[in-house]
Amino acid sequence: MLYRRFKECWLTRFGNNGLSPVIDSVFPLADASKAHQRMEDGLNTEKIVLTM
User: Fold this and answer.
1) Is the pTM of this model over 0.70?
2) What DSSP state is assigned to residue 27?
3) Residues 6 or more apart in contact with residue 50 via CB below 8 angstroms
4) CA–CA gap between residue 51 and residue 30 (Å, rounded)
5) Cys-Cys crosslink for 46: which of 3, 13, 24, 33, Cβ 3.0 to 4.6 Å?
6) What is the distance between the alpha carbons of residues 3 and 7, in angstroms, rounded to a whole number?
7) Which DSSP letter does residue 11 get?
8) What is the helix (H) or strand (E) element at residue 50, kind and residue range?
């Protein structure tokens, strides 16, 4: 039942550009510890991206 509701309500939105993540900050992979610290300090309001 839960999966069916998820599939009906949300799964289709993933493929139809219905969900768009909001980026809070971007860090190079070498600064992953800084990104983690930002998250631990509660400074991020949205997603933190690590780039390679």
Assistant:
1) no
2) E
3) 26, 27, 28, 29, 32, 35
4) 9
5) 24
6) 6
7) I
8) strand 47-51
pLDDT tens, 12-34?
A: 777 767 677 899 999 999 999 99
Per domain, the residue ranges of the chain are 21-52
31-45 pLDDT, tens per residue? 999 999 999 999 999
Residue type, 1: M
Half-sphere exposure of 46 (CA within 13 A, CB side): 8
Q: Are 35 and 27 in contact (CB under 8 A)?
A: yes
Which of 36-45 are b and which e, b meaning 16 or more Cβ less than 10 Å from the residue's Cβ?
A: eebeeeeeee
The two three-digit tokens of residue 48, written as one number? 């933190």
